[in-house]
Amino acid sequence: MTPQELYSSPARCRRLAAAPALGSPTGAAPPLLLWLLLLAGLAGVPRAQKGTQPHSIKIEGDITLGGLFPVHSRGPAGVACGEIKKEKGIHRMEAMLYALDQINSDPDLLPNITLGARILDTCARDTYALEQSLTFVQALIQKDNSDVRCSNGEPPIIPEPERVVGVIGASGSSVSIMVANVLRLFAKNECLNISSAVSSVSCPGDDLWMSTGPGSRIPQISYASTAPELSDNSRYEFFSRVVPPDSYQAQAMVDIVKAMGWNYVSTLASEGNYGESGVEAFVQISRETGGLCIAQSIKIPREPKLGEFDKLINRLMETSNARGVIIFANEDDIKRVLEASKKANLTGHFVFVGSDSWGAKSSPIQDLEDVAEGAVTILPKRASIDGFDQYFISRSLENNRRNIWFAEFWEDDFKCKLTRPGVKYDSSRRKCTGGYHGGWFNPVVQNCILFVELSSRIGIFE
């Protein structure tokens, strides 16, 4: 089911018939005005062309978790999705699938309960992710179907919408914020006369509080969103994350700049919560500590026009003595900055200090290693999960059919083309044989960049 069909789920009367009406005047859904504003905002959202992007991964289970991953990059103007993202998208999504397998195979963790999932592609675009994530709240919207009748006069049989109990994601902070703002609309406390030993909410008489029914809260846990704004529990009380906020890496960046003896730098930020909040934290800390001047603070537009990055490099050269560049940007913008630097014959001129969105990823610097040489990047301290490497390199076209994007990933990684029924074979690319294993997960040695891990030394992890 596509997001456009969420509020017109077909009733079944032998064949698909009239759709139920949106909302109930007395239901638990948010006020109609909120939905009108929300859907009006989505009117201008770029959508993937029909049939070009699979919608979602569905893993059957007794309990369903939602998943949000940037499987594809942001597309050009007017197109929602671009090329496939390996490290930030496919790798992380497979980690969630692996975790589900491990939990479901352990008889002691959730006995007699199977975890399922509904995993969506955000295409690294907050507005598109919002449209996709409406899938998660479909079951929370009460619909008035009293006036719906089939052609024979009988009431329709309406399939029960899928219930998502929690969401894993998203990656980008702007995406997580957009999704969190939707999920928090569906918050309803109910006092039930039940037997329980714990109650954190006062209810009349002997009733105890329980979040239940169509208005239940949906908790959200992000694996990569670091914007400080998300630490505001009054606004995002059901949001959590497993990474530290940007204020920590901003402090680390200031320490690095001072250790290098720099006192005059420029900053680059992707437009949005992540980039702007990160640079703001860096500037604030640098002012408090003193001894560091900001030459320019440049914002990369959310939808950059043709030649935008060339203009950006020219602006940086207006203060050419500020060779150190602090960059809080998504990996797609980082790559374009490096490409524009190379195009302007400025290889070796700038020395970049990059945030965790660059981190240890190879995709932003692929074929641009000479421009990135000398960069220092930040990433949270992390640990390897026993068994995941072997799991991932053992994935193939035959044993990983549940990942609907894996064939596209395979084609991109091995630079080959799969043959499909009814699709003309592209003779310019060699045919995929399906016999490769592990070629995409070999360790990449990068001598041109220094990675700095945020560690327990500054109190992030104990």
Describe the structure.
This protein starts with 11 loop residues before the first strand and ends in an 8-residue tail after the last strand. The protein has three domains: 239 residues, Rossmann fold; 154 residues, Rossmann fold, CATH 3.40.50.2300; 37 residues, no CATH class. It contains eleven helices and 20 strands. Helices cover 26% and strands 19% of the residues. A hairpin with a 1-residue loop joins strand 1 and strand 2. It is of the alpha/beta class.
- The number of helical segments is 11
Shape: globular
Biggest sheet: strands side by side, in what order? 3-7-4-8-11-12
How many domains make up the 3D coordinates?
3
Q: Tell me the distance between the termini.
A: 43 Å
CATH topology of the largest domain: Rossmann fold
What summary fits the major beta sheet? 6 strands, mixed
CATH class of the largest domain: Alpha Beta
Gyration radius (Cα, Å) is 24 Å
Provide mean pLDDT, rounded.
79
Named CATH architecture of the largest domain: 3-Layer(aba) Sandwich
Note poorly predicted spans.
Answer: 1-45, 47-53, 188-215, 437-447, 455-462
Fraction of residues in β-strands: 15-25%
Judged by helices, strands and strand pairing, the structural class is: alpha/beta
The share of residues in helices is 25-40%
Strands, count: 20
* Fourth-level CATH superfamily of the largest domain: Response regulator
